[in-house]
Amino acid sequence: MESPHKVKPDPRRGLPSVEQLARAAGELSGAPPAWALVEAARTVVAEERERVLRQGASDRRGPEDLAGRTRSRAAALAAPHPRRVVNATGVVLHTNLGRAPLALEAAEAAAAAGAAYADLEFDLERGERGDRQAAVATKLARLGGAEAAAVVNNNAAAVLLALNTLALGREVVVSRGELVEIGGSFRVPEIMERAGVHLVEVGATNRTHLSDYEKALGPATALLLKVHRSNFELRGFVAEVGLPDLARLAQAHGLPLLDDLGSATFAEVPGLPAEAFAPARLRLGADLVCFSGDKLLGGPQAGIILGRADLVRALRGNPLARALRLDKLSLAALDRTLDAYLSGDAEREIPVLRRLCEPVARLEARARRLAERLGRCVGEEVRVGVRPERSAVGGGSVPGFELPSWAVVVEAPGGAERLAARLRDAPVPVVARVQEGRVLLDVRTLLDDDDTAIEQGVVFALGSAVR
Q1: pLDDT tier at 181 (50, 70, 90 boundaries)?
Q2: Do 222 and 172 touch, CB atoms closer than 8 A?
Q3: Cα 90 to chain center, whole Å?
Q4: Element (H, E) at 148
Q5: Half-sphere exposure of 411 toward its Cβ, with a 13 Å CA cutoff?
Q6: 3 state SS of 277
Q7: How many CB atoms lie within 10 A of CB 3?
Q8: Per-position b or e across 341-361, b if 16+ CB within 10 A of its CB
Q9: Using 50, 70 and 90 to split pLDDT, how confident is the model at 416?
Q10: Within 29-129, where are the H helices?
Q11: Spatial separation of the C-alpha atoms in residues 180 and 406, rounded to whole Å
Q12: What confidence tens digit (pLDDT) does each residue in 198-226 have?
């Protein structure tokens, strides 16, 4: 007799195993390495099981589809990372694209340091252990007009080290309008908590006065902190205390003043805000100044610390300094970047400075040349032109500050989003901007040798051939 309660078959039955799917994907042409195929197959099988469980066996994908998805994912896994891309976004310091590209000489210095043994912590003259950051610290101090300097692995680390060294278990006073959140959801209050200091907020979000700081000072106060609002602006009914006034208050009470600039440089770039020039901040009274090495400075990821010798010495003596120290590749790249500033060649050698200082007339000429070049290799249904644009500095550097620029405008059948996606899938991915239904290739952020990669990327994206 047949049971009245039929057991429904499991819709996941019939799905290939991880091994079967990896083997099938490996039989396709140009298959990635075996390890990548297995990892990709594991992910694809898990996703398909979950989807079929929700939607039923009737919606199960075919073996060719699963093998193709596995191969694509495996290829992405096996590809070098990070990969070179063309930054055509118009954002000079694009955080997601690695911020500052290194000067060629700095990249070569890093490669040389990594390809052989190096005198990282060895004094060749005395034949004994040396100081890994002595050379860069001397150069940083000279460039910044500081008594001393130190370097760690990024600016958040510099702030963490300074707070933990100078104010552990005590109070740090900062304006509410400066309690910023930086990329990756890292917030100043959370960094202060991890540093082991007590946050004392003063003022309102939009207005803070000197009297607010004065009222907050007490026996437990260890440090005054000023934080640059790196990724947003306050406009309208606003007020903040300038660095000179804050410095006088700190000096009157025997307290150190830490100025977290976030981003700064040793070059006076026309048009950039005054606070972007690091040496000026020390002259205005800050005891310590810290900022990133891979933003306006144009070097590798690093946290630069400039200031009073006794404070820098204390920071370097903190056990945390070892955990936050810079590796040999970054030290080599930073050292060569600083040499460019010391020799007066920074604007010529450092890509970020070249991009920021490029005259708009040259940008227009380059955009027109690139548009003409692209026009010769696309079909008649594709429209290519140029237009003036505005470029952002980016990287949490100078919010609201824009530079005049020019862009190549591409309109193609299928829409701008599809074309932009295809450009990102090119052999050398091109990351462009989509605006008003058009793809914009902003030339301010193009490096010297990017035009060929853009041409190849456009040809790839449109599926056309160069005539």
Answers
A1: confident
A2: yes
A3: 15
A4: strand 148-152
A5: 8
A6: strand
A7: 6
A8: beeeebbebbbbbbbbbbeee
A9: very high
A10: 34-55, 63-78, 104-114
A11: 32
A12: 999 999 888 999 999 999 999 999 999 99
Q: Delineate the domains of the chain, giving CATH numbers in brackets.
A: 18-78 (no CATH), 86-96+355-462 (3.90.1150.180), 102-349 (3.40.640.10)
pTM above 0.85, yes or no: yes
CA nearest neighbour of 11 among 53, 46, 42, 54: 53
**What is the H or E stretch that residue 150 is in?**
strand 148-152
The SS3 assignment for 262 reads strand
Peptide bond into 404 cis (omega under 30): no
**Phi and psi angles of residue 362, each rounded to the nearest 5 degrees, phi first:** -70, -35
Least confident of 21-35, 80-94, 358-372: 21-35
Rounded-to-integer distance, Cα 82 and Cα 76, Å: 11
CA-CA distances (angstroms) from residue 162 to 37, 121, 257, 327, 334?
46, 23, 11, 20, 21
β-bridge pairing 128-129 and 122-123: antiparallel
Select from 242, 247, 282 the least CA-distant residue to 264: 282
Sheet arrangement for strand 383-394: 91-93, 383-394, 402-411, 438-442, 433-435
Element (H, E) at 357: helix 351-357
287-146-148 Cα angle (round to 5) = 90
Quickly list H helices, 168-202: 188-195
Q: 362: number of CA atoms within 13 Å, CB side?
A: 10
Name the token pair of 111.
């490669």
Residues in Cβ contact with 312 at an 8 Å cutoff, skipping those fewer than 6 apart: 147, 148, 149, 150, 288, 305, 306
Say whether 307 sits in a helix, a strand or coil. strand
pLDDT at 232 exceeding the cut of 80: no
Q: Tell me if 273 sits within 8 A of 398, measured CB to CB.
A: yes
How many Å apart are CA 277 and CA 298, to the nearest integer? 13
CA distances from 366 to 43, 60, 66, 195, 448 (A): 45, 51, 45, 48, 10
Say which DSSP state 145 is in.
T
Nearest residue to 435 (alpha-carbon basis) of 87, 90, 98, 97? 90
Specify whether the CB–CB gap between 394 and 92 falls below 8 A: yes
Residues whose CB falls within 8 Å of the CB of residue 281, separated by 6 or more in sequence, listed in order: 243, 259, 261, 264, 275, 289
